Every structure is written in structure tokens, then in C-alpha cells.
Amino acid sequence: MLSVFLFHCARYFDLEDWHVKNPQLSRGFSVFVGVLVQWIMPIFFVLAGQSSRFALNFRRSGQYLRERFKRLFIPLVFGIFILVPPQVYIERITHDQFLGTIFQFYPHYFDGFYGFGGNFAWMGLHLWFLLVLFLYSAMTLPLLHVLRGERAGRLIGKLSLFFEKAGAILLWVFPLALVDFLFHPSGLGRRSFGGWNIFVYLVCFLYGYLLASNERFTRALEKQRVIFVALAAVTTLGGFWLRQSGFYPSFGSLGYFWISLLRTFNSWVWVLAILGVGSVYLRFRSRFSMYASEAVLPFYILHQSIIVPVGFFLLGWSADVFVKYLVLGAVSFIIILLVYEFGVKRFVFLRFLFGMKRRGVSLPESRS
After folding, report:
1. Can you give the pTM of this predicted structure?
2. Tally of domains in the chain
3. Which domain holds residue 263?
């Protein structure tokens, strides 16, 4: 989540368009964004798949869906109507597409759909993850139950024996490469949501569920974590070199396939490296980790809705790009924590709107 926060702060400075842009842009921040986009949302969906596995260990289908509705859909709707309109307003006035106050803009927020020439952010802008994850959770539930069955468990156990071997889990990249290769980036394969098409995310979600189904997968990630870190570093440098060389093959060509394979391989080894390292060094509970675990969803919901207005008010300040990045990050981070600590966390209704459980409600012991 901290990486997502730093990523969206950097979007204020990179070379591509965004809701609000600093007058001085930076190629360095474009590289930073390009590296992070390779693994941020894939690992979010892998972790979401793992969480679904743990949740279904002690929840029936109805309980699981009700929890997902409260935790994902309610915050999404709240964000669409309350938190997101100021972002769209700032985008419109900084792109010379609207004149007037935010109160004058709000009725126009419902003019057409965002992304199709209008303003209504039906996907919640940065909250699109909540929408897609809610849909995946509901759509895949029958399959997830099948994978929890006794027969599927035996099959997964046999497969885990093979994939526990050195490097075998790297073969999981091929379905990812295939769905990245098959769908055109300007059509069903649009990469507007976090840099990948939604089919890649679906595979990542199912992979997360499978990884949480057998301890051998975890042991494999832990044992091979150094290899995964090295592969992530090497393929990141290789991808950067190709991009610098101007190698942009046309869709459907052999060159495009190799680019898709390299791109998804880099993403997958980043995910494996992070999971492996985390599994070894982050196996502890502390007051900080418990606080952060509860705060992470509200932080996600709030973060871009704070970054964009802070960036808007910093437009007139002439400062070095890196200094401005530090200020944007520090001010936004403090505001988010203050809103969470003294607002969201303390009021039952706000906890509900931000997908949090009531105070005093705890989960059975699990790795979720």
C-alpha cells in the first residue's frame, strides 16, 4: 500500500497525463512509475486471492459474499459519489475543460461516463480495484469451492510436489503471457487499470488462491527467494534497455509475443520475490502491524483523493521536482493519517463506509 501511495505521488511528475500534473515533469519519475507498475497491482490481486482462500476456510458462501459486499462494494459506492468527484473536478479545471467552483461542477459530474468523454467515474478512478475484486470474488466463487474440494486438494498436493522444485513455479508465467498477448491493448486488453488487462488480474487472483492452498508453495517461495530477486532485477534492466532501444513490435507479431513473455515474466518474478522475502522476514505480529492492517483499506480509499488536491494546491510553488515530491508525499501522508485516526477510525458510520469492521469484532485465527 505504501508502494501504491508513492506510485500515485510520482504520477504527479511523470511524463504521461494524469488528473493533475506538476508544471515541471521528470523522466526519472517515469522510470520509477514504469518499474512499480510491473508488480503493484498483480501482487494486490495475488494477495486478494490468498485472502479469499483463508476467508473461505471458516466462512460459508453467503458470509463470504456479504463480507465482500460490505468491505468492497460499499466503499466503492461511497467513493464514487463523495471522494472521487473532487478529483474529476480538479482534472477538468487543470485541463481547461471546466470553469467554475466545485459546487457548480457537481451536477455536471453526472454528465456522461468518465473514460468515454463524460465525468461520472463509474469505476471509482483509483477505486477500480474494489470493483474488479468484488466481481472476481462473486464470479469465481463456484470454482473456488471446487478447488477446496477433496479431489482438487489431492491434485493440488501432487502439483505442489512438482512446483516445489527449483524454478518450476516460473512456468506459471505462461498463462499470464498468453492473456497479455491475446487481447489488444486498445480493446479488451486495455491497460488503463494499473498497467495490465483485467484478464491478467483474474489469473493473478486465482494464482493467489492456489498459492495459499498448500504449504509447499510457500516453502518453495522461501527457498528460492534470492533467485527470484535476481531474476526480477535482471529482467527489469532488460525491459528498460528494450524500451530505450525503441523496440515496439506490432500487436500479434512474434516480437510482440516475446515482449509479452518478458513483461509478464518480470512481473511474476517480482511477485514471487516479494512473497518469498516477505514470508521469511515478515512473520511476526506487533502493535504496528495490527494497526497498519486495520488501516490499510481506509488508507487505500483515501490516498489518491488526498494526493490530487494537495498536488493542485502545490501547482504554483516553484521548487525542485524531488523536493516537491517529498513535500507532496509528506503532506498527503500526514493528512491521510489524521483523517483516518481522528475521523474514519472513531465513528461507526464512517467505519462502515470505509469497509471496516465494528470495533471489538475480531476474526478467528487465520493467516488472513
Report:
1. 0.93
2. 2
3. 37-84+127-283
